[in-house]
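Shape matters. As here.
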Amino acid sequence: MLCKDLKVVNLNITEDFYQYKALFRLCSENACMDIDMEMLSDPLILTEIIRTFEIEENTEVLKSEVTQKILEASKLESRIKEGQDYGRDVEDKKIQRNIDSLSTS
């Protein structure tokens, strides 16, 4: 299997007193593995990932590819607003009606 065939899913980035953690699940068709991004600097973990997913490339290529996939996934996650501005249009229309009523009187 090639590194490009791995998928990064369930990315969860948290911050606690400027300590960032990026937890994610690395998946293929046959296996899944929960990983902390901090663990990617450990050669033993990289070797375990290569063994688990039967990766053909070396650890440096794996680390680079997974890091790139995490960055792409974080861009997608940050675009999801989940109702952040819900109701704002209603408030803006109400304010505009009040302004319009003052200008006509």
In short: DSSP finds three helices and three strands in the chain.
